[in-house]
Design brief:
Shape: globular
CATH architecture: 3-Layer(aba) Sandwich
Strand order of the largest sheet: 2-1-3-4-5
CATH class: Alpha Beta
Number of domains: 1
Helix content: 40-55%
Radius of gyration: 15 Å
Largest sheet: 5 strands, parallel
Order of helices and strands: EHEHHEHEEH
Distance between the termini: 27 Å
Oligomer: single chain
Number of strands: 5
């Protein structure tokens, strides 16, 4: 049975790359939101965005953070990560900068979004606990194939890490 996951990503920069990962089909992800739907949610302000994210996280066992060049600088990515972790969901990051976008271009590797988050006990950064996977490959296809071959095990590992974290 495929796990139900929430995909966290920077919509404006990485929607195309994210659609590639969603199409793998090894895990059941949240429904893709359209530009128009996201704009409607944003018009409702921060509380509306939080409510939308909270609803999307409901029933999911893991959050997969798809990390592009600017993911770590996004306020709502941080919210999704913290909300997932505090909700006892697995959290894993997968770098997607080497997947081609709609223009056929790759991007630079962004910062680790887990570096900026300290766990509740205050002694560890989330980056010390959560995996940020950088798929090997010299072409977009090789990176895609590597993600396809490993995403299920990355999700399972993330869930075990969270289940065992005290």
């Amino acid at each position: 049975m495929a796990r139900k996951v929430f995909f966290s990503f920077y919509f404006a920069a990485d929607a195309w790359r994210t659609s590639q990962v969603r199409s793998i089909g090894a895990i059941e992800g949240n429904k893709a939101v359209s530009d128009n739907d996201w704009e409607a949610v944003k018009k409702g302000g921060d509380r509306a965005i939080e409510n939308w994210i909270d609803g999307q996280l409901s029933g999911k066992s893991c959050t997969v953070v798809l990390v592009g060049a600017a993911t770590a600088e996004r306020k709502w990515i941080d919210y999704e990560i913290v909300k997932s972790w505090n909700g006892s969901k697995g959290v894993v990051g997968i770098r997607i900068h080497n997947l081609k976008d709609a223009s056929g271009k790759t991007s630079s590797m962004g910062k680790n979004p887990f570096d900026a988050i300290t766990l509740k006990n205050g002694t560890k950064k989330m980056a010390d606990v959560v995996t940020l996977y950088n798929p090997p490959g010299s072409t977009s296809k090789e990176v895609y194939d590597n993600i396809a071959n490993n995403i299920e095990s990355l999700v399972e590992k993330a869930i075990k890490i969270r289940d065992n974290y005290v």
